[in-house]
Structures are given as structure tokens and as C-alpha cells.
Design brief:
This protein has 13 helices and 13 strands. The protein is of the alpha/beta class. A hairpin with an 8-residue loop joins strand 1 and strand 2. Helix 5 crosses helix 6, helix 6 runs parallel beside helix 7 and helix 7 crosses helix 8.
Length: 342
């Protein structure tokens, strides 16, 4: 006997086939039968859904619910949209592994995307974070990357310099440990500090570790505007050197002066795939984007840490403004888009 029978449904099964009218049977929380009404076993509960669409849950593949899901495990904003799976730990900013001394400044730094946690961070390692997710009993399924910015923060803080051999070894060990503990791959957000301070060579070294575990590199590229071609070549180089599978996250081309150039970047990706590099894109379908307000501040101020950045904004205001208006070598939102569009 079925626990639940859903009848009179327009079934969209996710394979790309047209919808079809039918019924879906559920037992012990799992779909066990799909077909017409006369093929279905008896059920304890029968629900006529009145010709509405019935489909598998949607996947939010780029979510920043890392902390919110622990505070609000019912996840109403997601399940009311039909989202049943979320992928977190994006843009280099996972919430583990994290040392106690870094929890407060990291929480402040990422609050613009992840919000402010109402409950204390009772974890340090990646496995203990996943355990905290399980204990919260969320209504959605979750998977998580480990952020390369978080890994670097845990070893080097916010310092803007190359790692020593020992520091690189510690970061490689951290990535390996997180992969063994359940990370689905590594994420990069190469406009965000401290991930921005990592060289291509450092990224290659860490990607090699994740590749050994068949992990994915989900990457927000170093530039999505005037220097997108170079940023894309960097990502392709990482794939060529390591064999890691790559997803270019929220693929877009920013700034009016770059309109019309998307085709050349898509052609670059096609050529890389033809070479055998496993690279794909998650398209950004909007004419606006959302990120931290503090990305408009040049990255050298971020290297002072969260408190140092806030102090600079208060005490070196004119110099910060001048650098924002005149400097290059970073993705300067004010120059690419204009303040009127921020």
C-alpha cells in the first residue's frame, strides 16, 4: 500500500520530455510508482492536485544559505519556490574550516551575502559544519564546496603575499581533509579577498588536490568585465594543468562597453572543451547583479582585515575615494559600470 497517491497531475519529470497526465505514488518518503490511475496501488492518503504541475524539486546550485539554513531550517523562501536542494560554500567563502579567532571577523566580512548568524558557530572543521547542518534538520537537501578563501584565511589570515612552502602545504592538507569529510569540490571567488591574493600557481596547486578526489572547481572568475578574456584563460589553464572539472559560476559580461563580446568568450570555452578540458558555465540571466558593497573598495585595503578596512574607510576617506576613482589592476566596479548604476 502507498502512503500517498497524487492524482490528476501534469507530470514534468525533468528529462526534457513534454508533460503528461498521470499519478505519482509515494511510500516511506520515496516515489515508488508513476503512471495512470488504474495502475496505482491503494493509498492511505489520496490527493487530487487538480491538474497542476508535479515535478522533481528544483536545485539552487548557487546559494549563500550557509548560515541561514541553521537559523531557519524550514527554509520557507526556498521550498515555497519548489527548491528542494541547495548548494552552498560558493565564491571562495565557505564557513568551514574556521579557527575560533577568525569566526568573528569572517562572519562580519561575509555578512553581506550570508547574513548574520543568530546561533553561535559551534564548529571548526568541515565535517563538524556538515554535522551542524544535519542537526538543524533542514527541509532541503544540502551540499557544500570548501572555499579557497576560507582555506587561505585559516592558514594565512588576510595577508596579501605568496604563501611559504609550509603554508601552501597546510592549505593543500586542508583541502584534502575537507574533500575527505564531504566537500563536493572547491570554490573560488577571485574578486573577493583573501582569495583574490592567490596566484594562478597557488590555485593550480590546490586544484590538483581537489582533482584527486574528483572534485569540482566552481569559480567566480578574476574579472567579468574589461579583462574577462585573461580571466577566462586563467581558469582554462587551471583545468589544463590539473584535469579538474570546472564550472564558471554566474557567467556574465559586465559593463556597457563590453556589450557584444560574449560570443568570443563562448567560443573560447568551446575551444577549451574541444581540447578535452571539462569546463562548463552557469549562465547569469539577469541585467543586474548582487554582491558585497565592499567590493567597490580596492583590495589592498582589505588586506588589513575587517577592522583595518573599516578604520581606513573612517580615517583615510579621501585616499580611498581617490583610489576607487583612479586605480586599475582590479575589477573596479565604479569605472566599469559607473556609480549611477550601483
Amino acid at each position: 500500500m502507498l502512503d500517498l497517491l497524487l492524482t490528476n497531475a501534469r507530470i514534468v519529470d525533468g528529462t526534457g520530455n513534454p508533460w503528461r497526465k498521470g499519478c505519482v505514488g509515494v511510500r516511506d518518503g520515496r516515489i515508488v510508482a508513476v503512471g495512470s490511475a488504474h495502475d496505482m496501488p491503494e493509498a492511505r492518503t489520496v490527493l487530487d492536485i487538480g491538474g497542476n504541475i508535479l515535478c522533481p524539486g528544483f536545485i539552487d546550485s548557487h546559494s549563500h544559505s550557509d548560515l541561514r539554513i541553521i537559523d531557519e531550517p524550514l527554509a520557507l523562501p526556498k521550498i515555497m519556490q519548489g527548491i528542494t536542494t541547495e548548494n552552498v560554500g560558493l565564491d571562495s567563502m565557505s564557513v568551514a574550516p574556521i579557527s575560533d579567532k577568525n569566526k568573528e571577523p569572517w562572519s562580519t566580512s561575509i555578512s553581506g551575502l550570508d547574513g548574520v548568524a543568530q546561533k553561535p558557530w559551534g564548529w571548526n572543521g568541515f565535517a563538524s559544519y556538515l554535522n551542524a547542518l544535519d542537526a538543524a534538520k533542514p527541509s532541503v537537501n544540502l551540499s557544500s564546496y570548501v572555499g579557497l578563501g576560507t582555506v587561505r584565511l585559516d592558514v594565512m589570515g588576510m595577508e596579501d603575499r605568496p604563501p611559504t612552502a609550509e603554508e601552501l602545504r597546510l592549505m593543500e592538507e586542508s583541502v584534502a581533509r575537507c574533500m575527505e569529510e564531504g566537500a563536493r569540490g572547491i570554490s573560488a571567488g577571485l574578486i573577493y579577498t583573501p582569495n583574490k591574493y592567490q596566484s594562478t600557481e597557488e590555485l593550480v596547486a590546490l586544484a590538483k588536490v581537489a582533482a584527486r578526489y574528483d572534485g569540482i572547481l566552481d569559480v567566480h572568475m578574476r574579472n567579468e568585465a574589461d579583462h574577462m578574456a585573461e580571466a577566462l584563460e586563467e581558469v582554462i589553464h587551471i583545468g589544463r594543468e590539473t584535469g579538474i572539472r570546472i564550472l564558471v559560476t554566474h557567467f556574465k559580461l559586465r559593463g556597457r562597453r563590453n556589450w557584444g563580446n560574449a560570443r568570443r568568450h563562448l567560443d573560447t570555452i568551446d575551444r577549451a572543451r574541444g581540447e578535452g578540458i571539462d569546463i562548463g558555465i552557469a549562465q547569469y540571466p539577469y541585467t543586474a547583479n548582487s554582491t558585497f558593497m565592499h567590493v567597490v573598495v580596492p583590495p589592498w585595503y582589505h588586506s588589513r582585515g575587517t577592522d583595518g578596512l573599516l578604520k581606513a574607510l573612517a580615517e583615510e576617506r579621501e585616499q580611498v575615494k581617490k583610489d576607487m576613482l583612479t586605480t586599475e589592476g582590479w575589477e573596479n566596479f565604479s569605472q566599469v559600470m559607473g556609480w549611477e548604476n550601483i
